[in-house]
Amino acid sequence: xxxxxxxxxxxxxxxxxxxxxxxxxxxxxxxxxxxxxxxxxxxxxxxxxxxxxxxxxxxxxxxxxxxxxxxxxxxxxxxxxxxxxxxxxxxxxxxxxxxxxxxxxxxxxxxxxxxxxxxxxxxxxxxxxxxxxxxxxxxxxxxxxxxxxxxxxxxxxxxxxxxxxxxxxxxxxxxxxxxxxxxxxxxxxxxxxxxxxxxxxxxxxxxxxxxxxxxxxxxxxxxxxxxxxxxxxxxxxxxxxxxxxxxxxxxxxxxxxxxxxxxxxxxxxxxxxxxxxxxxxxxxxxxxxxxxxxxxxxxxxxxxxxxxxxxxxxxxxxx
Amino acid sequence: xxxxxxxxxxxxxxxxxxxxxxxxxxxxxxxxxxxxxxxxxxxxxxxxxxxxxxxxxxxxxxxxxxxxxxxxxxxxxxxxxxxxxxxxxxxxxxxxxxxxxxxxxxxxxxxxxxxxxxxxxxxxxxxxxxxxxxxxxxxxxxxxxxxxxxxxxxxxxxxxxxxxxxxxxxxxxxxxxxxxxxxxxxxxxxxxxxxxxxxxxxxxxxxxxxxxxxxxxxxxxxxxxxxxxxxxxxxxxxxxxxxxxxxxxxxxxxxxxxxxxxxxxxxxxxxxxxxxxxxxxxxxxx
Lengths: 319, 286
Prior knowledge:
The complex is a heterodimer of chains A (319) and B (286).
Chain A: E1 16-22, H1 25-41, E2 45-51, H2 55-62, E3 71-73, H3 74-77, H4 81-95, E4 99-104, H5 114-130, E5 137-143, H6 149-158, E6 161-164, E7 167-170, H7 177-186, E8 197-201, H8 207-219, H9 224-244, E9 249-256, E10 259-266, H10 290-298, E11 301-307, E12 310-318
Parallel strand pairs in A: 1-5, 1-6, 2-3, 2-4, 4-5
Antiparallel strand pairs in A: 6-7, 8-9, 9-10, 10-12, 11-12
Helix pairs in contact in A: 1-2, 4-5, 5-6, 5-7, 8-9, 9-10
Chain B: E1 7-10, E2 19-24, H1 27-43, E3 47-52, E4 72-76, H2 89-105, E5 111-116, H3 126-141, E6 147-154, H4 160-168, E7 172-175, E8 180-181, E9 185-191, E10 194-202, H5 207-220, E11 226-236, H6 238-250, E12 257-260, H7 264-273, E13 281-283
Helix pairs in contact in B: 2-3
């Protein structure tokens, strides 16, 4: 992949992506403050602080001369993994040629399912791929007093370097993004729904499919915007299947607890499938991969299953 | 746009008895709509009566080939000039009425009449004169089973009140023929601003026709911004965003493609995608 901000002829600048395992406010500030100061003192860098309360206010108070928009509340910023990645990407592009210097604390919510937590871990891992040549520096705080061991383990799998106490060291447990993503994919299960509706897709005109998905989205309680997002996502995946897949094509739709699920299937084998497909953003709509990347932005979760029995793309939206 | 009471109808759907008006934004729009009216009429062997500013006018829609003898009559406005140099709407109308009557005596199935009436606005008390003309034409056309008329008026010369009055004196507002229309999507050219208006749903099956319509507009444009009026669009697929960004990239340097009146749900999708992904596309009027 080419870096989104890399101009031709400019040497790539490696990303620094470190997990910062801290315990308590004092420990947090003892590392976070010098990190922010280091960025402020370097005129080649643009500093952003995305952390959760009460740490955000504590840091803001210590840097009274800094612009308010340098401080972002992580609990609002980390709302949807793909959109968070997109927002960081926008930030890196906007600040170029300055290098982004980010104190970036991912938010982990106890109410998440194991599946949701894994998707967020996947995005921590993807940072290594997406920003690899941007020269950005990210220090990602993990609260060892509050977070469960599973999440601290994810931190070790997704950051090539660890900062703890006074020490910084390379991290032997780090997994390459492609391997980590494949690991996440292996942990998935695809339970067949008890009850579902099915629409065979026979022609190339997808008007009827959109009407079918739109009606059901409304009936199952999606907001108008979510319905439009789902219709756009399903249309994109179905159009793609019609071009690259093998008949028969069809769309299955069902509810699963609070979610509406819609799966587009075809009988073809996706032989170039990679665990990173659609996860790494293209630099513009003109590039390959724009469609699936955007589908991931539009719905809450996209799961691609490329097997010998066919290719299935499952899209999920919270009702 | 002009009024709620008028029927809007593409020029190809005008029927005998229709007394339509065209509030054109400039010569491009005028020639585009009137050209369709004249060309379709001549192709169907209708009688076409064209009221013109002078004798040697360049009638739109001719494609360089002279029509069959007797099909086209140009009525020069000059003939209505009084000895003192002024114009007399009465004389003009008389000349028109005379041509229509003559054509009705012939074996034409349909008689098409069109006139640019903007000149009446130059007369003292111009709007009153214009409305008087319009009443005469209305009386001549509406009961007819054979006559279709388009009155052309330069929109830039009209006040809001004048528009309302003109709308009330015509049964129909004529619009350009769509560049494309099927049961799902309609594409219509716009002239002010220059661009296209899209109605319905835009998906992969219809990228080709949009690309063709865009090329037509780009060919006719003079490097100005191209606007897409999306007020009537219910769906746009991601491939179309890709295609529009591609068109914008091909004409880089001549300004962005501007997306006007985008419905809120489509706009939110664009914002979710991120405008940085869509170089050369810009959100216009909301």
